[in-house]
Specification:
single chain, mainly alpha
Length: 467
Protein backbone atom coordinates (compact mmCIF):
# COMPACT_ATOMS: atom_id res chain seq x y z
CA UNK A 1 0.00 0.00 0.00
CA UNK A 2 1.85 3.02 -1.35
CA UNK A 3 0.89 6.64 -1.00
CA UNK A 4 2.47 9.77 -2.39
CA UNK A 5 4.05 12.03 0.23
CA UNK A 6 2.78 15.55 0.74
CA UNK A 7 6.33 16.88 0.36
CA UNK A 8 8.35 14.85 -2.15
CA UNK A 9 11.98 15.08 -1.17
CA UNK A 10 13.26 15.12 -4.73
CA UNK A 11 10.81 17.66 -6.13
CA UNK A 12 12.17 21.16 -5.98
CA UNK A 13 12.21 22.37 -9.56
CA UNK A 14 11.34 19.16 -11.42
CA UNK A 15 8.19 17.02 -11.17
CA UNK A 16 8.58 13.66 -9.42
CA UNK A 17 9.91 10.92 -11.68
CA UNK A 18 9.97 8.05 -9.21
CA UNK A 19 7.22 8.05 -6.64
CA UNK A 20 3.94 6.32 -5.97
CA UNK A 21 2.79 7.92 -9.27
CA UNK A 22 5.73 6.26 -11.05
CA UNK A 23 5.89 6.00 -14.81
CA UNK A 24 5.61 2.17 -14.84
CA UNK A 25 2.23 2.25 -13.14
CA UNK A 26 -0.09 0.99 -15.93
CA UNK A 27 -3.07 3.18 -15.06
CA UNK A 28 -6.22 1.61 -13.68
CA UNK A 29 -5.36 -1.21 -11.29
CA UNK A 30 -7.85 -2.50 -8.76
CA UNK A 31 -5.25 -4.50 -6.85
CA UNK A 32 -3.90 -3.22 -3.55
CA UNK A 33 -6.25 -0.23 -3.44
CA UNK A 34 -6.59 -0.56 0.29
CA UNK A 35 -9.81 -0.60 2.30
CA UNK A 36 -11.05 1.53 3.86
CA UNK A 37 -9.78 4.55 1.95
CA UNK A 38 -11.40 7.97 1.87
CA UNK A 39 -11.33 7.86 -1.93
CA UNK A 40 -14.08 5.25 -1.81
CA UNK A 41 -16.25 7.64 0.17
CA UNK A 42 -15.54 10.38 -2.35
CA UNK A 43 -16.50 8.12 -5.25
CA UNK A 44 -19.60 6.89 -3.43
CA UNK A 45 -20.81 10.44 -2.81
CA UNK A 46 -20.29 11.37 -6.48
CA UNK A 47 -21.98 8.24 -7.85
CA UNK A 48 -24.86 8.51 -5.36
CA UNK A 49 -25.42 12.10 -6.43
CA UNK A 50 -25.41 11.09 -10.09
CA UNK A 51 -27.62 7.99 -9.88
CA UNK A 52 -29.63 8.27 -6.66
CA UNK A 53 -30.27 11.99 -6.42
CA UNK A 54 -33.32 14.08 -5.62
CA UNK A 55 -35.50 12.63 -8.41
CA UNK A 56 -34.88 9.08 -7.16
CA UNK A 57 -35.66 9.63 -3.48
CA UNK A 58 -36.16 12.58 -1.17
CA UNK A 59 -37.89 13.49 2.05
CA UNK A 60 -38.00 17.27 2.14
CA UNK A 61 -34.34 18.26 1.68
CA UNK A 62 -33.05 14.81 2.71
CA UNK A 63 -31.66 12.70 -0.15
CA UNK A 64 -29.39 9.69 -0.41
CA UNK A 65 -26.52 11.64 -1.91
CA UNK A 66 -26.71 14.30 0.81
CA UNK A 67 -26.56 11.56 3.45
CA UNK A 68 -23.51 10.18 1.67
CA UNK A 69 -22.01 13.66 1.68
CA UNK A 70 -22.61 13.98 5.44
CA UNK A 71 -20.93 10.62 5.99
CA UNK A 72 -18.00 11.76 3.87
CA UNK A 73 -17.55 14.86 6.03
CA UNK A 74 -17.65 12.82 9.25
CA UNK A 75 -15.13 10.35 7.82
CA UNK A 76 -12.76 13.11 6.69
CA UNK A 77 -12.95 14.91 10.04
CA UNK A 78 -12.28 11.64 11.88
CA UNK A 79 -9.19 10.96 9.79
CA UNK A 80 -7.96 14.52 10.30
CA UNK A 81 -8.44 14.23 14.06
CA UNK A 82 -6.53 10.94 14.14
CA UNK A 83 -3.75 12.42 12.03
CA UNK A 84 -4.20 9.86 9.23
CA UNK A 85 -4.54 12.63 6.66
CA UNK A 86 -2.84 16.00 6.74
CA UNK A 87 -4.08 19.46 5.82
CA UNK A 88 -2.47 20.16 2.44
CA UNK A 89 -0.37 23.16 1.53
CA UNK A 90 -2.30 25.89 -0.23
CA UNK A 91 -2.42 26.15 -3.99
CA UNK A 92 -3.39 29.18 -6.07
CA UNK A 93 -6.65 27.43 -7.01
CA UNK A 94 -7.60 27.35 -3.31
CA UNK A 95 -7.26 31.13 -3.14
CA UNK A 96 -9.37 31.55 -6.28
CA UNK A 97 -12.11 29.26 -4.99
CA UNK A 98 -12.21 31.24 -1.73
CA UNK A 99 -12.36 34.49 -3.70
CA UNK A 100 -15.29 33.32 -5.86
CA UNK A 101 -17.24 31.91 -2.92
CA UNK A 102 -16.63 35.04 -0.85
CA UNK A 103 -17.98 37.20 -3.66
CA UNK A 104 -21.01 34.92 -3.98
CA UNK A 105 -21.70 34.97 -0.23
CA UNK A 106 -21.40 38.78 -0.11
CA UNK A 107 -23.73 39.03 -3.11
CA UNK A 108 -26.23 36.77 -1.35
CA UNK A 109 -26.19 38.75 1.91
CA UNK A 110 -26.57 42.12 0.20
CA UNK A 111 -29.47 41.07 -2.07
CA UNK A 112 -32.99 39.77 -1.46
CA UNK A 113 -32.05 36.31 -0.23
CA UNK A 114 -35.67 35.77 0.92
CA UNK A 115 -36.90 35.78 -2.70
CA UNK A 116 -39.29 32.89 -3.44
CA UNK A 117 -39.08 31.28 -0.01
CA UNK A 118 -35.30 31.81 0.25
CA UNK A 119 -34.51 30.20 -3.10
CA UNK A 120 -31.15 32.06 -3.31
CA UNK A 121 -30.12 30.52 0.03
CA UNK A 122 -31.13 27.05 -1.15
CA UNK A 123 -29.18 27.58 -4.36
CA UNK A 124 -26.07 28.60 -2.43
CA UNK A 125 -26.34 25.68 -0.01
CA UNK A 126 -27.11 22.82 -2.39
CA UNK A 127 -25.54 24.00 -5.65
CA UNK A 128 -22.32 25.48 -4.25
CA UNK A 129 -21.57 24.52 -0.64
CA UNK A 130 -22.16 20.79 -1.23
CA UNK A 131 -19.72 20.73 -4.17
CA UNK A 132 -17.26 22.53 -1.90
CA UNK A 133 -17.27 19.43 0.33
CA UNK A 134 -16.05 17.31 -2.59
CA UNK A 135 -13.44 19.95 -3.35
CA UNK A 136 -12.19 19.97 0.26
CA UNK A 137 -12.03 16.18 0.58
CA UNK A 138 -10.21 15.64 -2.71
CA UNK A 139 -7.72 18.32 -1.65
CA UNK A 140 -6.91 16.14 1.37
CA UNK A 141 -6.28 12.91 -0.53
CA UNK A 142 -6.09 13.82 -4.23
CA UNK A 143 -2.28 13.57 -4.27
CA UNK A 144 -2.47 9.83 -3.48
CA UNK A 145 -2.38 7.31 -6.30
CA UNK A 146 -5.16 5.26 -4.72
CA UNK A 147 -7.53 8.23 -4.89
CA UNK A 148 -7.12 8.50 -8.64
CA UNK A 149 -7.40 4.73 -9.08
CA UNK A 150 -10.72 4.67 -7.24
CA UNK A 151 -12.09 7.76 -8.99
CA UNK A 152 -10.96 6.58 -12.43
CA UNK A 153 -12.51 3.14 -12.02
CA UNK A 154 -15.73 4.62 -10.63
CA UNK A 155 -16.00 7.11 -13.50
CA UNK A 156 -15.47 4.38 -16.11
CA UNK A 157 -18.19 2.24 -14.54
CA UNK A 158 -20.50 5.23 -14.16
CA UNK A 159 -19.89 6.20 -17.79
CA UNK A 160 -20.84 2.76 -19.09
CA UNK A 161 -24.08 2.91 -17.08
CA UNK A 162 -24.92 6.46 -18.21
CA UNK A 163 -24.23 5.73 -21.88
CA UNK A 164 -26.28 2.52 -21.94
CA UNK A 165 -29.14 4.15 -20.04
CA UNK A 166 -29.13 7.22 -22.32
CA UNK A 167 -29.31 5.00 -25.41
CA UNK A 168 -32.19 2.95 -23.99
CA UNK A 169 -34.01 6.10 -22.92
CA UNK A 170 -33.66 7.76 -26.33
CA UNK A 171 -34.70 4.55 -28.12
CA UNK A 172 -37.67 4.06 -25.75
CA UNK A 173 -36.54 0.78 -24.18
CA UNK A 174 -37.91 1.29 -20.64
CA UNK A 175 -37.15 -2.24 -19.44
CA UNK A 176 -33.42 -1.40 -19.43
CA UNK A 177 -33.69 2.01 -17.75
CA UNK A 178 -32.83 2.35 -14.06
CA UNK A 179 -33.93 4.11 -11.94
CA UNK A 180 -37.46 4.36 -13.27
CA UNK A 181 -37.64 7.98 -12.10
CA UNK A 182 -35.77 8.78 -15.33
CA UNK A 183 -39.00 8.00 -17.23
CA UNK A 184 -41.28 9.99 -14.94
CA UNK A 185 -43.95 11.33 -17.36
CA UNK A 186 -44.60 14.30 -15.09
CA UNK A 187 -41.05 15.55 -15.81
CA UNK A 188 -41.72 16.49 -19.42
CA UNK A 189 -38.69 18.73 -19.97
CA UNK A 190 -36.14 17.01 -22.24
CA UNK A 191 -38.29 13.85 -22.29
CA UNK A 192 -37.23 11.67 -25.21
CA UNK A 193 -33.56 12.53 -24.98
CA UNK A 194 -30.82 10.78 -23.02
CA UNK A 195 -31.25 12.84 -19.88
CA UNK A 196 -30.28 10.00 -17.53
CA UNK A 197 -30.78 10.09 -13.75
CA UNK A 198 -30.05 13.85 -13.84
CA UNK A 199 -33.24 14.39 -15.88
CA UNK A 200 -31.05 16.77 -17.88
CA UNK A 201 -29.19 15.83 -21.09
CA UNK A 202 -26.63 18.60 -20.62
CA UNK A 203 -25.47 17.28 -17.24
CA UNK A 204 -25.62 13.75 -18.57
CA UNK A 205 -23.36 14.72 -21.45
CA UNK A 206 -20.87 16.54 -19.24
CA UNK A 207 -20.53 13.48 -17.00
CA UNK A 208 -20.21 11.12 -19.95
CA UNK A 209 -17.45 13.24 -21.51
CA UNK A 210 -15.45 13.08 -18.27
CA UNK A 211 -16.07 9.33 -18.05
CA UNK A 212 -14.95 8.92 -21.68
CA UNK A 213 -11.75 10.83 -20.89
CA UNK A 214 -11.16 8.56 -17.86
CA UNK A 215 -11.12 5.56 -20.17
CA UNK A 216 -9.12 7.19 -22.95
CA UNK A 217 -6.16 8.00 -20.70
CA UNK A 218 -5.54 4.26 -20.28
CA UNK A 219 -4.55 4.08 -23.96
CA UNK A 220 -0.85 5.07 -23.72
CA UNK A 221 -0.06 2.50 -21.01
CA UNK A 222 -2.24 -0.38 -22.25
CA UNK A 223 -0.86 -3.24 -24.33
CA UNK A 224 -2.05 -3.40 -27.95
CA UNK A 225 -3.91 -6.66 -27.41
CA UNK A 226 -6.03 -5.01 -24.71
CA UNK A 227 -6.74 -1.73 -26.44
CA UNK A 228 -9.81 -3.25 -28.07
CA UNK A 229 -11.59 -2.83 -24.71
CA UNK A 230 -10.79 0.88 -24.72
CA UNK A 231 -12.11 1.19 -28.29
CA UNK A 232 -15.31 -0.64 -27.30
CA UNK A 233 -15.73 1.62 -24.28
CA UNK A 234 -15.17 4.70 -26.45
CA UNK A 235 -17.81 3.56 -28.93
CA UNK A 236 -20.29 2.96 -26.12
CA UNK A 237 -19.63 6.43 -24.73
CA UNK A 238 -19.99 7.96 -28.21
CA UNK A 239 -23.43 6.35 -28.50
CA UNK A 240 -24.39 7.67 -25.06
CA UNK A 241 -23.21 11.20 -25.81
CA UNK A 242 -25.06 11.12 -29.14
CA UNK A 243 -28.22 10.00 -27.30
CA UNK A 244 -28.29 13.23 -25.30
CA UNK A 245 -29.20 14.94 -28.62
CA UNK A 246 -27.39 18.05 -27.38
CA UNK A 247 -25.17 19.82 -29.92
CA UNK A 248 -22.93 21.42 -27.31
CA UNK A 249 -22.15 17.97 -25.89
CA UNK A 250 -21.26 16.74 -29.37
CA UNK A 251 -19.02 19.76 -29.93
CA UNK A 252 -17.17 19.32 -26.62
CA UNK A 253 -16.71 15.57 -27.12
CA UNK A 254 -15.46 16.03 -30.70
CA UNK A 255 -13.00 18.73 -29.65
CA UNK A 256 -11.54 16.58 -26.88
CA UNK A 257 -11.27 13.50 -29.10
CA UNK A 258 -9.38 15.53 -31.69
CA UNK A 259 -7.02 16.94 -29.04
CA UNK A 260 -6.39 13.53 -27.51
CA UNK A 261 -5.81 11.93 -30.91
CA UNK A 262 -3.44 14.74 -31.89
CA UNK A 263 -1.48 14.38 -28.65
CA UNK A 264 -0.98 10.63 -29.06
CA UNK A 265 -0.36 10.35 -32.81
CA UNK A 266 2.75 10.75 -34.98
CA UNK A 267 3.43 13.50 -37.47
CA UNK A 268 2.17 11.46 -40.45
CA UNK A 269 -1.25 10.98 -38.86
CA UNK A 270 -1.36 14.63 -37.85
CA UNK A 271 -0.55 15.69 -41.39
CA UNK A 272 -3.29 13.49 -42.87
CA UNK A 273 -5.76 14.75 -40.27
CA UNK A 274 -4.90 18.37 -41.07
CA UNK A 275 -5.63 17.73 -44.75
CA UNK A 276 -8.73 15.61 -44.18
CA UNK A 277 -10.48 17.63 -41.46
CA UNK A 278 -11.48 20.62 -43.65
CA UNK A 279 -12.88 18.21 -46.27
CA UNK A 280 -14.85 16.30 -43.65
CA UNK A 281 -16.25 19.53 -42.22
CA UNK A 282 -17.19 20.81 -45.68
CA UNK A 283 -18.98 17.59 -46.61
CA UNK A 284 -20.68 17.43 -43.23
CA UNK A 285 -21.98 20.99 -43.43
CA UNK A 286 -23.21 20.51 -46.98
CA UNK A 287 -25.05 17.28 -46.11
CA UNK A 288 -26.33 18.03 -42.62
CA UNK A 289 -26.01 21.80 -42.15
CA UNK A 290 -29.72 22.45 -42.63
CA UNK A 291 -30.61 19.78 -40.08
CA UNK A 292 -28.35 20.93 -37.24
CA UNK A 293 -30.82 23.54 -35.94
CA UNK A 294 -33.98 21.62 -36.78
CA UNK A 295 -34.29 17.99 -35.75
CA UNK A 296 -36.62 16.07 -33.46
CA UNK A 297 -35.27 15.91 -29.91
CA UNK A 298 -37.76 16.33 -27.05
CA UNK A 299 -40.74 13.98 -27.20
CA UNK A 300 -43.35 16.70 -26.72
CA UNK A 301 -41.65 19.42 -28.78
CA UNK A 302 -41.92 19.68 -32.55
CA UNK A 303 -39.06 20.25 -34.98
CA UNK A 304 -40.40 23.75 -35.64
CA UNK A 305 -40.36 24.57 -31.92
CA UNK A 306 -36.80 23.29 -31.65
CA UNK A 307 -35.73 25.49 -34.54
CA UNK A 308 -37.41 28.51 -32.94
CA UNK A 309 -35.75 27.72 -29.60
CA UNK A 310 -32.31 28.13 -31.18
CA UNK A 311 -33.38 31.48 -32.62
CA UNK A 312 -34.43 32.77 -29.18
CA UNK A 313 -30.94 32.69 -27.66
CA UNK A 314 -29.96 36.11 -29.10
CA UNK A 315 -33.02 37.59 -27.38
CA UNK A 316 -31.85 36.22 -24.03
CA UNK A 317 -28.40 37.68 -24.68
CA UNK A 318 -30.01 41.06 -25.41
CA UNK A 319 -31.89 40.94 -22.10
CA UNK A 320 -28.69 40.04 -20.25
CA UNK A 321 -26.77 42.87 -21.90
CA UNK A 322 -29.38 45.45 -20.90
CA UNK A 323 -29.46 44.19 -17.31
CA UNK A 324 -25.66 44.17 -17.01
CA UNK A 325 -25.50 47.77 -18.20
CA UNK A 326 -27.66 48.92 -15.29
CA UNK A 327 -25.92 46.89 -12.54
CA UNK A 328 -22.50 46.02 -13.91
CA UNK A 329 -20.52 45.49 -10.70
CA UNK A 330 -22.70 43.79 -8.09
CA UNK A 331 -25.44 42.26 -10.24
CA UNK A 332 -29.00 41.52 -9.17
CA UNK A 333 -28.40 38.70 -6.72
CA UNK A 334 -27.87 34.95 -6.88
CA UNK A 335 -30.93 33.10 -8.32
CA UNK A 336 -32.84 36.37 -8.74
CA UNK A 337 -32.87 36.68 -12.53
CA UNK A 338 -36.63 36.27 -12.83
CA UNK A 339 -37.31 38.79 -10.08
CA UNK A 340 -35.68 41.63 -12.04
CA UNK A 341 -35.77 40.59 -15.71
CA UNK A 342 -39.45 41.15 -16.54
CA UNK A 343 -39.31 44.92 -17.28
CA UNK A 344 -36.44 44.40 -19.71
CA UNK A 345 -38.57 42.19 -21.94
CA UNK A 346 -40.70 45.20 -22.84
CA UNK A 347 -37.78 47.43 -23.83
CA UNK A 348 -37.57 46.22 -27.39
CA UNK A 349 -34.32 46.60 -29.26
CA UNK A 350 -34.40 46.60 -33.09
CA UNK A 351 -38.00 45.31 -32.97
CA UNK A 352 -36.93 42.04 -31.33
CA UNK A 353 -39.91 40.25 -29.72
CA UNK A 354 -38.20 39.94 -26.34
CA UNK A 355 -41.44 38.91 -24.63
CA UNK A 356 -41.05 35.46 -26.19
CA UNK A 357 -38.25 34.58 -23.75
CA UNK A 358 -39.88 35.88 -20.58
CA UNK A 359 -40.38 32.38 -19.13
CA UNK A 360 -36.86 31.17 -19.89
CA UNK A 361 -33.74 31.23 -17.74
CA UNK A 362 -30.52 32.50 -19.26
CA UNK A 363 -29.06 30.05 -21.76
CA UNK A 364 -25.46 31.03 -21.06
CA UNK A 365 -23.64 30.34 -17.80
CA UNK A 366 -21.31 33.31 -18.16
CA UNK A 367 -24.08 35.80 -18.94
CA UNK A 368 -26.11 34.40 -16.04
CA UNK A 369 -23.19 34.97 -13.65
CA UNK A 370 -22.68 38.50 -15.01
CA UNK A 371 -26.36 39.32 -14.46
CA UNK A 372 -26.71 37.78 -10.99
CA UNK A 373 -23.21 38.21 -9.53
CA UNK A 374 -22.09 41.19 -11.58
CA UNK A 375 -18.99 41.54 -13.71
CA UNK A 376 -16.87 41.14 -10.59
CA UNK A 377 -18.37 37.72 -9.87
CA UNK A 378 -18.00 36.68 -13.51
CA UNK A 379 -14.33 37.69 -13.50
CA UNK A 380 -13.71 35.67 -10.32
CA UNK A 381 -15.26 32.63 -11.97
CA UNK A 382 -13.43 33.10 -15.27
CA UNK A 383 -10.07 33.44 -13.53
CA UNK A 384 -10.82 30.30 -11.49
CA UNK A 385 -11.92 28.33 -14.55
CA UNK A 386 -9.03 29.58 -16.68
CA UNK A 387 -6.43 28.82 -14.02
CA UNK A 388 -7.86 25.32 -13.51
CA UNK A 389 -7.81 24.71 -17.27
CA UNK A 390 -4.20 25.93 -17.54
CA UNK A 391 -3.11 23.81 -14.56
CA UNK A 392 -4.76 20.70 -15.99
CA UNK A 393 -3.19 21.30 -19.41
CA UNK A 394 0.19 21.74 -17.71
CA UNK A 395 -0.18 18.30 -16.13
CA UNK A 396 -1.37 16.66 -19.33
CA UNK A 397 1.28 18.09 -21.65
CA UNK A 398 4.32 17.82 -19.35
CA UNK A 399 6.48 14.99 -20.78
CA UNK A 400 8.47 14.76 -17.54
CA UNK A 401 5.44 13.46 -15.63
CA UNK A 402 4.39 9.79 -15.55
CA UNK A 403 1.42 8.84 -17.74
CA UNK A 404 -0.87 8.54 -14.73
CA UNK A 405 -0.38 12.17 -13.72
CA UNK A 406 -0.79 13.27 -17.33
CA UNK A 407 -4.05 11.33 -17.37
CA UNK A 408 -5.37 13.26 -14.38
CA UNK A 409 -4.64 16.46 -16.28
CA UNK A 410 -6.54 15.36 -19.38
CA UNK A 411 -9.59 14.15 -17.45
CA UNK A 412 -9.77 17.43 -15.53
CA UNK A 413 -9.29 19.42 -18.73
CA UNK A 414 -12.07 17.38 -20.36
CA UNK A 415 -14.47 18.21 -17.53
CA UNK A 416 -13.62 21.91 -17.56
CA UNK A 417 -13.94 22.05 -21.36
CA UNK A 418 -17.28 20.22 -21.34
CA UNK A 419 -18.57 22.60 -18.67
CA UNK A 420 -17.36 25.70 -20.54
CA UNK A 421 -18.57 24.66 -24.01
CA UNK A 422 -22.00 23.71 -22.70
CA UNK A 423 -21.98 26.89 -20.64
CA UNK A 424 -21.94 28.94 -23.84
CA UNK A 425 -25.38 27.57 -24.76
CA UNK A 426 -26.96 26.61 -21.41
CA UNK A 427 -26.84 27.73 -17.80
CA UNK A 428 -24.89 24.72 -16.56
CA UNK A 429 -24.52 26.25 -13.09
CA UNK A 430 -28.18 25.52 -12.29
CA UNK A 431 -27.62 21.78 -12.82
CA UNK A 432 -26.37 20.73 -9.41
CA UNK A 433 -24.32 17.64 -10.33
CA UNK A 434 -22.39 19.57 -12.98
CA UNK A 435 -21.15 21.80 -10.17
CA UNK A 436 -20.27 18.75 -8.07
CA UNK A 437 -18.18 17.33 -10.87
CA UNK A 438 -16.52 20.65 -11.76
CA UNK A 439 -15.31 21.44 -8.24
CA UNK A 440 -14.22 17.85 -7.64
CA UNK A 441 -12.01 18.06 -10.74
CA UNK A 442 -10.65 21.49 -9.81
CA UNK A 443 -9.77 20.17 -6.35
CA UNK A 444 -8.10 17.13 -7.90
CA UNK A 445 -6.00 19.38 -10.16
CA UNK A 446 -4.96 21.49 -7.16
CA UNK A 447 -4.00 18.40 -5.13
CA UNK A 448 -2.02 16.75 -7.92
CA UNK A 449 -0.34 19.99 -8.99
CA UNK A 450 0.79 20.57 -5.41
CA UNK A 451 2.34 17.11 -5.47
CA UNK A 452 3.92 17.46 -8.92
CA UNK A 453 5.00 21.11 -8.68
CA UNK A 454 5.76 22.02 -5.06
CA UNK A 455 6.72 25.55 -6.12
CA UNK A 456 3.03 26.29 -6.74
CA UNK A 457 2.27 26.02 -3.02
CA UNK A 458 1.44 29.31 -1.42
CA UNK A 459 3.68 28.68 1.57
CA UNK A 460 6.99 30.09 2.72
CA UNK A 461 8.65 26.68 2.83
CA UNK A 462 7.85 26.14 -0.86
CA UNK A 463 9.36 29.52 -1.66
CA UNK A 464 12.43 28.59 0.34
CA UNK A 465 12.77 25.32 -1.60
CA UNK A 466 12.88 27.11 -4.94
CA UNK A 467 15.20 29.94 -3.86
Amino acid sequence: MSTAPNHPADAQSMPPQSSSWGGRWPGLNWQHLGWPHLGWGLAAALVAGAVLGHSFFHISVLTIDRLAMAGLVVWAVWLLWRGQVAVPSLHRLDALVVCFYTWMAFNLLTSDWRFRDSQPVSMFLFFYLLPLILYAVVRLIGHERRTWQVLQGSLIGLGAYLAFTAFCEARELPMFVFPKSILNPEETEFLGRGRGPFLNPISNGVFQIVCLASGLVLWPTTAWRRRGWIVAFGLLMAVGIWATLTRSNWMAAALLLVLFGWRHSNWQVRGLATLALPCVLLVGVSLFGDKINAFKRDKHVSVEDMSESAELRPYLATIAGKMIQERPITGYGLAQYHKHSKPYHFRNVNDQPLQKVMQYVQHNTFLAYAVELGVGGLLCFLVLLGTAAWSSLRLWLDPRLPASLQGVGFVAFAGITAYAVNGLFHDVAITVMSNHLLYLLIGLVAAVSTHAYPATRLTTDAIAQTS
